[in-house]
Design goal:
Elements (H helix, E strand, L loop, with lengths): L5 E3 L11 H11 L4 E5 L4 E4 H17 L7 E5 L4 H13 L2 E4 L6 H11 L1 E7 L1 E2 L2 E2 H8 L14 E5 L8 E2 L9 H13 L5 E6 L9 E5 H14 L7 E3 L7 H14 L2 E4 L6 H11 L3 E4 L1 H9 L13 E4 L6 H10 L6 E5 L6 E4 L6 H6 L3 E2 L3 E6 L13 E7 L5 E2 L3 H7 L6 E9 L5 E6 L4 E3 L2 E3 L1 H9 L4 E11 L3 E10 L7 H8 L11 E4 L13 H12 L8
Helix pairs in contact: 1-2, 1-3, 2-3, 2-6, 7-8, 9-10, 10-11
Length: 556
């Protein structure tokens, strides 16, 4: 009988059944004088007891402002100590933290504040070219309250000069009173691990962003198992260049350090490969997180060889498909012998599959590992919904503790994503092999159908990565009147390298099937991407359609 693509994770160790606020108290009790947080660019160092003290003082200040458990607190800032203090303060008081993408502009901010009814907004004064305060004030020119945001009553700025109608972040703890501190102490034991504690907005590339609503139990457990699989232990020093507003930074980095006793180390406010290398050397980091584009940039930095990164041992590459050749370079050149790959999505807290430090090297660099404990995964035929045999591609679905509560105030979209059986339909095309290891071959919407053949861009990207002149590559499908779709590759060459489309095509011929050989090749310096480093393939496709004057066929 053919084995089906359905796998269930281990039932041990048991799930954590306490809140994030309680986890912080436990950390401060267990490691009071150990470093918890280092923000290099701010010259801030906090122990676990100091982090708890600052989180509680800020939480009591919010309570004094009238922010109550269940109220939404927006955090719109790049990586900084204040972001993390706010993360733990809201958790201690049972408030729901709303992560706001630092790249958002006024339109997206307007939508976010109104959609979830933010009551207090914490934001950086400025970041890069964005004047956050000016953008907020443009949305409510008459001040607060504003009819568009009836619940928004408090604006709190991080950095910058004093502004009318705003509170400085450092002034909030001073508002705490003995009464609000007592209130905070009373709130803690009343909080339930199943309570909503965080709202994270999806990227919204195919429509308005949706607010994935996550509980203490969702994200604390996911962080716990992520840390276990990567061998994170007490005293490990984790370099965190990934954005905190994203599940990678907030959960897989911050909360993993919380439950395992690691140190959260932020090299800069936004990703900078040089800052990462400097921080790894200076802080003797033992772990490093990043999306593939970050690791590629670090390895390609002209000064890479002069930095001592031998302290590194472990880490995670996640956020988008991880090229095998890049993983091999990270293992060899960055000394990350225990580095692994994680796969998931915001709606699943985020990780479903992860490699383990005891997996064979070839498995760790070429797969997304096996399903996490207490989770269940299956691969289905997108058309029929039937589970497919092992080794066949289909839509990956996840079930278990990690599945979100739902999309905030959107029952219809929630029902589209989570079926009656509790399965989260990811929209990702995956494969599970005979040993239970998974791989992602693309998105359902990214799959190219050329002349009736299903072509998975990931497979072609992996092949092209082996070319000695290629640093990075992205493959998309373009409309074609004869074949339905044709293959297009955007290629970023190694520094100083040169190549022609004809050379690349000739290199492909005879090594991959003719229908997988790109018809269109463009050499580029960079790819359009989100702030988290995810490539926006739809922009590549749109740019090429416009450049070539292609027509998109539609059916009635």
């Amino acid at each position: 009988m053919t084995e089906l693509s359905h796998t269930i994770g281990a039932d041990h160790p048991p799930l954590l059944e306490h809140t994030i606020g309680e986890a912080l108290r436990m950390a401060a009790e267990r490691w009071p004088d150990a470093e918890a947080l280092v923000s290099v660019h701010q010259n801030v160092r906090l122990t676990w007891s100091q982090l708890l003290e600052k989180a509680d003082a800020f939480a009591a200040g919010l309570l004094a402002l009238g922010v109550a458990p269940g109220d939404r607190v927006g955090v719109w800032a790049p990586n900084c100590a204040e972001w993390t203090i706010a993360q733990f303060a809201t958790a201690r008081a049972g408030m729901i933290q709303v992560n706001i993408n630092p790249a958002y502009r006024t339109h997206e901010l307007d939508y976010t504040l109104a959609k979830v009814g933010v009551k207090a907004l914490i934001c950086a004064a400025r970041f890069k070219t964005s004047d956050y305060i000016a953008m907020v004030e443009s949305l409510a020119p008459g001040g607060l309250p504003d009819p568009k945001f009836p619940l928004l009553t408090h604006l709190i700025h991080v950095g910058g000069e004093a502004r009318p109608g705003w509170l400085a972040f450092e002034d909030v703890p001073a508002l705490a009173t003995s009464e609000t501190r007592s209130e905070l102490a009373r709130i803690g034991p009343t909080l339930d691990r199943l309570n909503a504690i965080n709202i994270q907005f999806t990227s919204g590339t195919t429509g308005l962003p949706k607010g994935a609503t996550l509980s203490h139990r969702n994200i604390l457990n996911n962080a716990y198992f992520c840390g276990l699989a990567m061998g994170l232990k007490e005293g490990d020093r984790l370099c965190v260049p990934v954005p905190l507003y994203h599940c990678f930074g907030m959960v897989m980095s911050n909360l993993a350090c919380l439950v395992h006793g690691g140190v959260m180390i932020y090299p800069s406010d936004a990703f900078d490969p040089l800052a990462v290398l400097q921080t790894v050397e200076k802080e003797r980091c033992t772990g490093l997180h990043g999306v593939p584009t970050m690791f590629i940039a670090e390895l390609a930095h002209p000064d890479f060889a002069r930095f001592d990164v031998t302290s590194l041992r472990t880490g995670l590459m996640a956020g988008s498909p991880c090229p095998v050749e890049v993983m091999k370079k990270v293992t060899r050149d960055m000394h990350m012998s225990e580095v692994g790959i994680a796969y998931g999505m915001t709606e699943t807290s985020p990780v479903s599959f992860q490699t383990s430090t005891d997996d064979p090297l070839e498995r760790r660099v070429s797969t997304i590992g096996r399903v996490q404990p207490h989770l269940e995964v299956k691969i289905i035929d997108p058309a029929s919904g039937e589970t497919v045999p092992r080794g066949m591609p289909g839509e990956l679905c996840t079930k278990g503790y990690s599945v979100m509560i739902g999309y905030w105030d959107d029952a219809e979209k929630t029902a589209e994503a989570i079926d009656n059986g509790g399965w989260m339909h990811t929209g990702d095309l995956g494969v599970i092999d005979a040993h239970g290891y998974g791989n992602i071959v693309g998105r359902i919407k990214d799959m190219v159908i050329r002349g009736g053949e299903n072509v998975y861009p990931r497979e072609i990207e992996e092949f092209l990565f082996r070319h000695p002149k290629i640093e990075d590559v992205q493959v998309v499908g373009l409309p074609d009147p004869k074949y339905g779709e044709e293959i297009c590759a955007w290629i970023k060459l190694n520094a100083g390298a040169s190549a022609t489309p004809e050379e690349i095509i000739a290199w492909c011929k005879g090594q991959i099937a003719h229908y997988k050989v790109p018809r269109y090749i463009r050499f580029v310096d960079a790819f359009p991407m989100t702030v988290t480093g995810k490539i926006q393939k739809y922009q590549i496709r749109e740019a090429m359609i416009a450049e070539l004057g292609l027509k998109i066929e539609t059916t009635a």
